[in-house]
Every structure is written in C-alpha cells, then in structure tokens.
Amino acid sequence: MAAGLFKNNIRKLHQVVGNAVTFGRYILFGEGSTQLLNAAVHALSSNHNHSSPPSVVLASVPYYPLYESQTVLFESKDFKFERNISLWKNNSDGRTNLIEFVTSPNNPDGQLNKAVLQGPNAKAIYDRVYYWPHFTAVPAPADDDIMLFSISKLTGHAGSRFGWAVIKDEALFERMKTYVSLNTMGVSRDAQLRALKLINVVFQGRRGREIFEFGHTIMRKRWEKLNRTFSVSTRFSVQKIASQYCNFFHRVREPSPAYAWLKCEREEDKDCYGVLKAANIISRKGSLFGAESRYVRLSLLRTQDDFDLLLQRLNKLVLEEDNIKSM
Amino acid sequence: MAAGLFKNNIRKLHQVVGNAVTFGRYILFGEGSTQLLNAAVHALSSNHNHSSPPSVVLASVPYYPLYESQTVLFESKDFKFERNISLWKNNSDGRTNLIEFVTSPNNPDGQLNKAVLQGPNAKAIYDRVYYWPHFTAVPAPADDDIMLFSISKLTGHAGSRFGWAVIKDEALFERMKTYVSLNTMGVSRDAQLRALKLINVVFQGRRGREIFEFGHTIMRKRWEKLNRTFSVSTRFSVQKIASQYCNFFHRVREPSPAYAWLKCEREEDKDCYGVLKAANIISRKGSLFGAESRYVRLSLLRTQDDFDLLLQRLNKLVLEEDNIKSM
Fold it and tell me: pLDDT tens, B55-72?
C-alpha cells in the first residue's frame, strides 16, 4: 500500500515533467537502475528455451561501460554481451534474440539516442536516467517498453541506490520482479523512504520548476564555459548538442549535458587519457565506452570548485597549443 | 573511512558476543545476506576455467529454499544447483568444484550444522545469520572461510536489506566485492546508516546483554510452550534441540530456535501443509526445503498475539487427536 502511494507520486512527477508515460504502466523498484539493467536482460532472455542460442546483448558506441562489465560478469546460458552492434544491423539471423541498451540522453555524449536494431527479435532497454530537464530538452514523453530511471540522476543521491523501471508488459514486469526478489529480496525500505522524501521535496519547489531550473542553469553555464575553452582549440573537440524545444520549459532550451565527450584530434594523441593525465586532469578512457582511445569522458557533475579547477587546467592545456601560441 | 569505522563496530560486536572471529578478516557489505549468497557462489566458481565442468552447488536437506531458487535463477556456465548432496559425499570426481551452503544454526531445524562435503574441491559458504545468543547457544567463535550475517536476524530489521560477509581470503573478497559493485554499485548508504545505528543501540544495552537476554527469554518460552503442546501428540512431532553451554551467557542455556520443523507422523498425513491449513494454520511446505511433504516449517518469529493464536490452534488440533480423545 505504501509502495503503491509512492509509485503514484513517481507517476505524478513524470506527468508534471512530461518525460515519460507511466499511467497504465507497471513500476518496479530496484537498488539503483544498476540492478534493474541486469533484471531486464534476465527477464528479456529467460523466456526462450534452452535449445535456442543465447540472446545477444548490444549497445551502440559510445555506451555506458557498466552494460558490458555487468553483462559479462553475469553471463548465463541465456545471454551474452557482444561489442559489435553493426554486425547485427539489418542482419539478424531471425533466431537470435537481440537486446539493445539505449541510453537516451546518452552517457557519455548526451544525444537523444533511439534503438538501432529493429525487427521481431530485437528488444530495447531504454536507460532514461538522464531524461530530466536539467540535462536535456524533453521534446515528448517517452513511451518505451522498458524505461529505467534513478534518484541518483534526478536529485544526485547516488548513494541511496534507488531506481525504478517503467514496464509495459505484465509478464516481463513479473520476471523482473522475481529477479529483484531473489537477488536482494526487494529494495531497502530505508532507501525507499529517502527517495519518497526526495521526490516530495522536488514537488515542493513549484512542482519541480525550482530544482530543474537551478540544475539546468548550472549545467548550461558549465557547458558554455567548456565550449568557449575548446572553441580556440584545434587539438581537442567536444560533441555538438543542438538547442531544442522543451515541453517542460515551454521554450527552446540550450544544451546542458552531464558529460563532455572529448576527442583528441591530433594524429599522435592516440592516448587522450594520457594527454589529459599529464595535465593533471582525470577523465574516463574512451575504450571503456567501446570507443577509440582518442576519446575520453569528462564529468560535468561535480562541485563548483572542482569544475572551476577542471576548466582552469583545460584552459591552460589549450593555451599551450602551438597554433595558439603562434597566433 | 566511515565504512571502516562501521566495520570495526561490527568486529567489536562479534568479539563481545563471541560468535565469530572477525579480526584479520575482510568484511563485505551486501543488500541483506541474500545478495551475498550468490556473490559467494559467483566468486567461488568464477576462478576456474571455462573448459572445466560447472561448480555444483549443494545443501543438506532440509535447507533454506532461497539457496535453490536463487542459484537456479542465476545459473551460469560456472555453476548449477543440484538437489542430491548425498551423491557427492565421499564421491567427488576430483574435477568438479563443490560449493556447499551450510546454515548453522540451520533454517528450518536450528541444528548447528557443519559442512558434510570434504576434500580439496569442496568449499563451504557458512550462513551464520541465526548464530546469535537469542536463537542458539554459542559454543565457540565460528571461524569459517566465508560467514554471512544480517541485521534482519540480529535486530529484526529485515526491510533494511543489510548483511555482511566475513571472508578469510583476499582474492575471494575482491571477487565478491566486484559482484556487489556490478550488481547494485554497493549497498544503500541509507541502509548502512540504519544498520550502524542499530548496532550502536545493541551495544548500549549492557554490551548486548539486554537484547540477547530479552530475545532468548521470549524465544525460549515460545519453544517450551510449543513442546508442551506436542508432548501429548502422536500425530505431530518437532525437532529435538539439546541444551548446551553458551560462551555468551556463561551457562548451559535452553533451546530457543527461530523455527519449528514439524513432522506429520501419521502414514496418511503425507501433506502436512494441507493438514495444518485445514486447521487454519499457515506453514511453509517441507518440499521447499528439499524435504518430504510430511514436514513443514512453523515460524516462531512473529508478534506475541500471532504466536498465541498459532499455539491455540495447534492445541486444538492436538486435542482432537483420537488417542487423546480416548484417554
């Protein structure tokens, strides 16, 4: 009963924000979206009989590293991870179930990705944890078969380990519920209570307007500063994100992604992580995201002091570029 | 650092109670002991190469049902559950890794079980969640390679989902840590905070004496009443548990188990669950514990009202026995 009321609060929040269709959908709690990722893989692949080949789990590059590390660690007779999604585009053998992780907006590059695998054997797990107005324009409510959200990316309380899945199909919901039940016997009630309180606080700020306006302003400014830094660089570039109409803000809004997806453009800078490391900047290696090592991810989700320091070091690095020195 | 202090509190508690050797051991948090069960299976089986046969996971009957349901659901190339442990006693093929769940005291029958599988290929996961003075005599500190505990069975806060593993081997600890990390990205900090406070409260009551004396008294009385009820029955019997010297209470203490393992003795009462159900008594079927269906488990962990009602209905059932009517 308490869980039912909480689920209705979550539905109300999605309705106010306009980022997901949740009425008439099943909601399942998880220990962060992390637990729900493998619960979904498990549920989508457990249906088929053991004589079929295992379901193949895939994601377009660049993808969130945990999809690979988690799926590989928990590999079963029913599913396995493969790195090369392009082999399966328009090329399904008709027998193998395909499970695609779609992060939208994407971690690391903030793009509003859509599933690339189509056909009756292809299923998508939409990781929607960044689909909130502080990180992205919300052009329309998402209505995917499986959508994942988390308190971590909504209010920042990653340590509470609380996420939820929005699921269309009842049988799939039941299988995911069994997974969570046998994995951890449900979700910590302490974490649930914390998340319930947090969502109530989000509502109190002018029905979410306060936190999302605050979050968007902070993240937009960081993105602008970062772009200004790289605008004079030929050595480094970051992804382009277009301004877009947002149904929550009722206007075209400027980009404000959680991460910068940085590319080292020089032929010799194959190890972009090393290039930044030498300048005392910690990034995450592109290879973790299935990409070339001339890419890295920089997190813009940090304290202001920490961000200012990052920007200062990046500015220094850019100003040292030969072409700029000689300008 | 905070986690380190918390771990030292846990070590201090085990030392005061005298139920486990934890100094010089690794401690890993989990979302209840539930998560740590499969983490241990995973870690114990992930070491061997894929050309070997999968590790076989076993438990002596009667065993806690989750060992089977969880291991079957998460079955991988590396491990599988088998029901018949006796096939493997003194009969190891020398190639197959054996992983034995040992619950001590046992759920459902409260016995201080020891591993029955021996030899270099046999590993045991000791589920010690009931090894506290309210449920059992503590003859000596346990010093098993892997021991699991939980706040659920220590203070009753099952909903917090907080457990811990005490592990001797560093490499095994690291593999279990990776499992928890990729499964749920660690344990909810809200649950950790709750558990930390609970353990501090346990200490406040005369270094644990208060809660364990209270718990033992309540559970002992329930066990005595139940035994009195069945002492006049030929239709039903419950397990025998001997009084034993307890290092915590410094005296021989009377039994006070968490569950009664009830047997329907009459030839025709093959469905013991059904016999009790007809008398409005809810039990758990013996078949779930790998046992004959003439066994059931009755939980003594319930509110006093609920226990009194259970006892009243059991008394009625026993008094209806033909032999008693005719006495």
Answer: 999 999 999 999 999 999
Domain presence at residue A39: yes
Burial of A193 (0-12, 13-18, 19+ CB in 10 A): middle
B1: confidence class by pLDDT, cuts 50, 70, 90: very low
| Closest Cα in chain B, distance from residue A26 (Å) | 21
Q: In 3D, which of A108, A34, A98 has the Cα closest to residue A66?
A: A34
Element (H, E) at B102: strand B98-103
Per-residue pLDDT tens digits for A156-180: 999 999 999 999 999 999 999 999 9
Whether residue A96 is found in the same domain as residue A221: no
The boundaries of the domain holding residue B45 are 3-204
Domain's final residue, options B204, B228, B256: B204
Joined together, the tokens standing for residue B3 give 């986690």
Q: Total domain count for chain A? A: 2
Final residue in a domain of this structure, among B204, B236, B270: B204
Pair (B137, B178) in one structural domain: yes
Statement to judge: residues A7 and A113 lie in one domain: yes
- The verdict on B130 and B237 lying in the same domain is no
| B3 in reach of chain A (CB within 8 A) | no
B216 domain-assigned: yes
Tell whether A181 lies on the interface with B, counting CB pairs under 8 A: no
B178–A184 C-beta distance less than 8 A: no
For residue B257, being part of any structural domain is answered with yes
Class of residue B194 by CB neighbours under 10 A (exposed 0-12, middle 13-18, buried 19+): buried
B317 touches chain A (CB under 8 A): no
What pLDDT, on the 0 to 100 scale, is given for residue B52? 81
- Shortest distance between the Cα of A320 and any Cα of chain B, in A, equals 39
Half-sphere exposure of B279 (CA within 13 A, CB side): 19
Beta-sheet strand order (sheet of B79-81): B26-30, B163-167, B146-150, B122-127, B98-103, B55-59, B79-81
ipTM of the complex in this document: 0.95
A244 CB within 8 Å of a chain B CB: no
Q: Please, which residues have CB within 8 angstroms of residue B46's CB and are 6 or more apart in sequence? A: B78, B175
Pairwise CB contact (< 8 Å): A190 & B75: no
Distant-in-sequence, close-in-space partners of A125: CB < 8 Å, separation ≥ 6: A37, A40, A41, A44, A99, A100, A101, A102, A146, A148
CATH of the domain at B73: 3.40.640.10
Say whether A38 and B183 touch across the interface (CB within 8 A): yes
| Average pLDDT rounded to a whole number, residues A276-305 | 97
CB contact under 8 A, A188 and B183: no
